[in-house]
Specification:
Largest sheet: 6 strands, mixed
Shape: elongated
CATH topology of the largest domain: Globin-like
InterPro entries: CdaR-like_regulators, CdaR_GGDEF, PucR_C-HTH_dom, PucR_C-HTH_sf, RsbRD_N_dom
CATH architecture of the largest domain: Orthogonal Bundle
Number of helices: 17
Family: Belongs to the CdaR family.
Radius of gyration: 35 Å
Number of strands: 8
Structural class: alpha+beta
Number of domains: 3
Strand content: 5-15%
Order of helices and strands: EHHHHEHHHHEHEEHEEHEHHHHHH
CATH class of the largest domain: Mainly Alpha
Pfam families: GGDEF_2, HTH_30, RsbRD_N
Helix content: 55-70%
Protein name: PucR C-terminal helix-turn-helix domain-containing protein
Length: 421
């Protein structure tokens, strides 16, 4: 409730000021002035100017008219304190703006415009009324204080209403979005237009899914607040500023999708940087509702690979880079057994075994060339030859006799070497 002190009464001068205020209120037609305010709002406030909803325009005009009648009535009261709430139609206006996507700053700008035009109308009209200069000045000062206090107090009330309604709407939208996403991921069938409406995200076109998370041992309250903002930045990089959908899953995980025109993996790889506590996995680009599901599944699979690798994993992992490891690690226990069986002593998690594994991997990558292997590793050719001889001694057979198996085992060991037990 706005409580506005109009000053003390009792003297002849006060009564003259009151009379002048009443005369001003009589001289200015609030209905005509409200039409001018409505026209100014729809001309000078961009969000209203772009809105073609005739119902909202009519309601906005009614808000202006009822507000001016209340203000005029307040200025005419004989008591020195006026207690005013916004008229009911004005109290309901913020919710209408929220539902139509008109931002809070536009509503406040509309009130400031109305205030500006009311002040101008009173200043213009008072100059035409007969009164002593000091009475005229004091009447105008009281009116100006009243207008300012009223707009200030009502703006606070309506801002609170707007924020509450927006939060209520967002909570409802977030719940519907999360339920729809889970229904789709669980295999539910849904027409594209219905899915787009529920998700507030266009499911046509091509999507890249991503998952942003922090491990339970890493996050704290400060990082939790920033996780969704990091996810928004990830979506912006992946989608090049296009449409992004985020779905928080608990406190420490956010699922995300970005609509893309062309997925430039090299660009995303170069631009995507995340703070140290945060992990990100990114799926491949895929079209339509089926693609929305597929790319999320790929991001989920990449996350499993990243967790399999533990602290050896990069902070950002792309499914494109770990697709083979995804298949190899589908059964982690079997994968560990496979690594032990194929690499034997080379699977151990120590510096010497890691050096030998690296040498074998580069040697195979370089098509069995000791010279190119030595160049890549920055060692002597004879060092490579000696290491390969040691490797084959430890394996008990030639590397080439089980090349495919050894290459697969090396990839698995790079992600998660076997503990030395």
């Amino acid at each position: 409730m706005a409580e506005i002190d109009l000053g003390s009464a009792g003297t002849d001068r006060d009564r003259a000021i009151e009379a002048l205020l009443g005369g001003l209120a009589d001289a200015i037609d609030p209905d005509r002035l409200s039409d001018e305010i409505l026209e100014a709002i729809y001309t000078r406030v961009e969000e209203f100017a772009e809105d073609g909803d005739e119902d909202l325009r009519r309601m906005t005009g009614t808000v202006a008219t009822r507000t001016l009648h209340d203000v005029w009535r307040g200025l005419r009261r004989s008591s020195r304190t006026a207690e005013l709430d916004p008229p009911p139609v004005a109290a309901a206006w913020p919710a209408e703006l929220v539902h139509r996507g008109i931002e809070l700053h536009a509503m406040l700008r509309a009130y400031r415009l109305g205030h500006e035009l009311v002040e101008a109308a009173w200043q213009t009209t008072i100059s035409r009324l007969e009164a002593d200069d000091d009475v005229r000045a004091e009447a105008l000062l009281r009116a100006s204080r009243f207008f300012f206090a009223y707009v200030d107090a009502v703006s606070v009330q309506l801002t609170h209403t707007y924020i509450e309604e927006r939060a209520r709407r967002n909570r409802g939208a977030a719940v519907l979005r999360a339920e729809t996403v889970r229904e789709l991921l669980d295999g539910g069938s849904m027409p594209a237009d219905r899915a787009s409406a529920a998700l507030r995200y266009d499911v046509s076109g091509t999507h890249v899914g991503f998952i942003v998370w922090m491990e339970p041992s890493e996050p704290d309250g400060r990082h939790a607040v920033t996780l969704e903002s990091v996810a928004a930045r990830v979506g912006s990089v992946v989608g090049r500023g296009g449409e992004v959908m985020l779905v928080p899953v608990g406190n420490w995980v956010v699922w995300g999708w970005a609509r893309v025109i062309a997925h430039d993996l090299d660009r995303v790889r170069a631009e995507l940087v995340v703070p140290d506590p945060v992990h990100v996995t990114v799926g491949d680009a895929s079209p339509g509702i089926d693609g929305l599901i597929r790319t999320h599944d790929e991001a989920t699979a990449a996350r499993r690979v990243a967790r399999f690798a533990g602290n050896r994993s990069e902070r950002v992992v792309f499914h494109h880079d770990v697709a083979l490891l995804e298949l190899l690690t589908a059964d982690p226990v079997a994968a560990q057994r496979f690594v032990r069986a194929e690499l034997g002593p080379l699977a151990v998690d120590d510096e010497q075994a890691a050096r030998l594994r690296s040498t074998v991997q580069v040697y195979l990558d370089e098509n069995l060339s000791p010279i190119r292997t030595a160049r890549r590793l920055g060692v002597n050719k004879n060092t490579v030859v000696n290491r390969m001889e040691k490797v084959e001694d430890l394996l008990g057979h030639a590397v080439l006799s089980r090349r495919r198996e050894i290459e697969a085992a090396l990839r698995l060991a790079a992600a998660d070497p076997v503990a030395d037990d």
